[in-house]
Amino acid sequence: MKKLSLLLIALLPMAASAQYTEIINSNLPGNSQSAYAVGARVLQFEGGLWYERSNHKKTGTSMNFTGVNYAVRYGFFKEQLEVMLNGTLAYDYTVEHSKTSSHFGFVNNTIGAKYQLFKPAFLDEKPNIYSWKANNSFRWRNLTPSIALYAGMNFLPNKRYYYEEVPQLSPKVAAIFQAEPIPRVVIVANLIADRFLKKESTEYSYILTVTHNLDNGWFSIFAEQQGVYNEQYRDQITRLGVAFLASDKLQLNADVGFGWKDTPQRYMGLIGASYRIDNHNSYIKKVLKEKVEPTKIDHKKKAKRNRRNAID
After folding, report:
1. What would you report as the CA-atom Rg of the chain, rounded to the nearest whole angstrom?
2. Would you list the domain boundaries of the chain?
């Protein structure tokens, strides 16, 4: 029994840390969501300063946006589960036929939860220490994605200059897929339905992100393609960027992007950071305490012999 308890102690941290990574796991850079949660009892902050310029060729309108994107993520209850708050605070300066206007305020806030439904078993296999080829070559099974679902609610402000016709409360859902076809290359795909209470406000989009971690381990580069479709607007947006791992708790990132249309023509850029407060070890200790109980040995007392009977 003692050996079994020691085996459980050795295996439980591996099982409990299925989502957790030793270094920060951020959704930045880019706009897609990872299929993995941050890990139980991990609080993570992500955000950045962004700028966008758009010119509408037909209306002769130019707009300059400056703002802050922010996200707060927290893992709890299970390794596969996290809750998050995403939002945008923006200022715009618009010129239309020599007339100018400006606005400042919250564009949107969305609160939701993500849960990982499936993770391929081979991702937990140990590396083959005898074969470099086995660890680094392409295998068709590597295209099998981890799958997660996201559901949230948009909270639009009462006084807003975007989405004037959209209800103040509207749902958002997403299916998230993530695969690692070869080492240090990750592909993430998001399929999103947003604000779908009314047909005129419903928006569908996809995001496809490819990230490559460079040999030094500190830098990653990424490319992303996003498609947006609704009643009033459709576009294809391409983003390119880089991330730098400053420490196991801090990541810095930057990206630039552009739209493929001229109604409007869009150029954008962002400088951001991600930081986590890691209390995951306390979760592991809690799991160990609940799962591994001390062995109880029943010491039965020997029956006393009757001395008189023994003499007889």
Report:
1. 26
2. 15-291
CA distance linking residue 222 with residue 207, whole number of Å: 13
| Residues 30/209, Cβ–Cβ less than 8 Å | yes
- Residue 37: predicted pLDDT: 94
Distance of CA 139 to the CA centre of its chain: 25
Rounded CA-CA distance 208/13 in Å is 32
3-class state of residue 286 by DSSP: helix
DSSP-derived secondary structure letter, 200:
T
* Fold classification of 15-291 (topology level): Porin (2.40.160)
- Average pLDDT over the chain reads 82
First to last CA, the chain: 44
Given a contact cutoff of 8 angstroms between Cβ atoms, the answer to whether 252 and 244 are in contact is yes
Q: What is the model's pTM?
A: 0.83
* Inter-CA distances, 145 with 175, 244, 245, 267, Å: 12, 25, 25, 32
237-269 burial: b if 16+ Cβ within 10 Å, else e: bebebebebeeeeebbbbbebebeeeebebebb
> pLDDT tens across 139-191, in order?
788 889 999 999 999 988 766 555 566 778 899 999 999 999 988 999 999 99
Tokens of 103: 């606005």
Q: How far apart are CA 18 and CA 6, in angstroms?
A: 20
Question: Residue 304 above 60 pLDDT?
Answer: no
Pinpoint the alpha helices (H) of the chain. 2-16, 132-136, 280-291, 307-311
Report yes or no: 241 and 255 within 8 Å, Cβ to Cβ.
yes
Look at residue 310 in the predicted model and tell me its pLDDT.
Answer: 46
Q: Which residue has the tokens 């103040």?
A: 168
- Per-residue pLDDT, averaged over 232-248, amounts to 94
Distances in Å between the Cα of 245 and the Cα atoms of 24, 179, 273 are 8, 21, 10
